[in-house]
Amino acid sequence: MSWSVLGSLSAVPALDRPDLLADPVALALKALDPADAARVGVAEIDPTLADTAAFCEAYGSPLDVSANCVVVAGRRGGDTRYAACLVLATTRADVNGAVRRRIDARRASFAPMDDAVALTGMEYGGITPVGLPEDWPVLVAPEVAAAETVVVGSGIRGSKLAIPGALVASLPGAEVLDDMARAAT
């Protein structure tokens, strides 16, 4: 397993440390094929360093293998639709283009923090594609899916996961969405 993306941190199989996972994340990992679940590592971090740039700098994790998971709310009429977007930290999600079209919304934006936390059961700054609500699409940038291993949140701010990109792309509700990631400005 290539958990070296976590830089100076030592990782263990995620299911060996459920205390480092949000409840929905632990449940989702337990539901995976045991061989796939064993490919997911977790490492404890200082929760004040959960934000991607601070994490990468503090622990020597490469920015180009860190992925950000953002919750998007799209509206059409009185209906609100949610989706999660996973892009490399060196890019940003095209929320008002590819994502808005995919969720068939007239308007789309990042979901308010309180909504994202309440709907996912995860901490803000630790939201991950693992264990999201079943009816949400999990939109994965092709660069994430193609990565050998990426660093993502664990559902809490006190740890990070190392997970194969192909496994992310095979999670329930996941689909690779071309043209979703744009260069960060």
TrEMBL record:
Family annotation (InterPro entries): YbaK/aa-tRNA-synt-asso_dom_sf, YbaK/aa-tRNA-synth-assoc-dom
Gene3D superfamilies, A to Z: YbaK/aminoacyl-tRNA synthetase-associated domain (3.90.960.10)
YbaK/aminoacyl-tRNA synthetase-associated domain ranges (all copies): 47-166
Domain of life of the native organism: Bacteria
Entry-linked SUPFAM superfamilies: YbaK/ProRS associated domain (SSF55826)
Pfam families registered for this protein in UniProt: tRNA_edit (PF04073)
GO molecular function: aminoacyl-tRNA deacylase activity
Protein name as catalogued: YbaK/aminoacyl-tRNA synthetase-associated domain-containing protein
Taxonomic lineage from the root: Bacteria, Bacillati, Actinomycetota, Actinomycetes, Pseudonocardiales
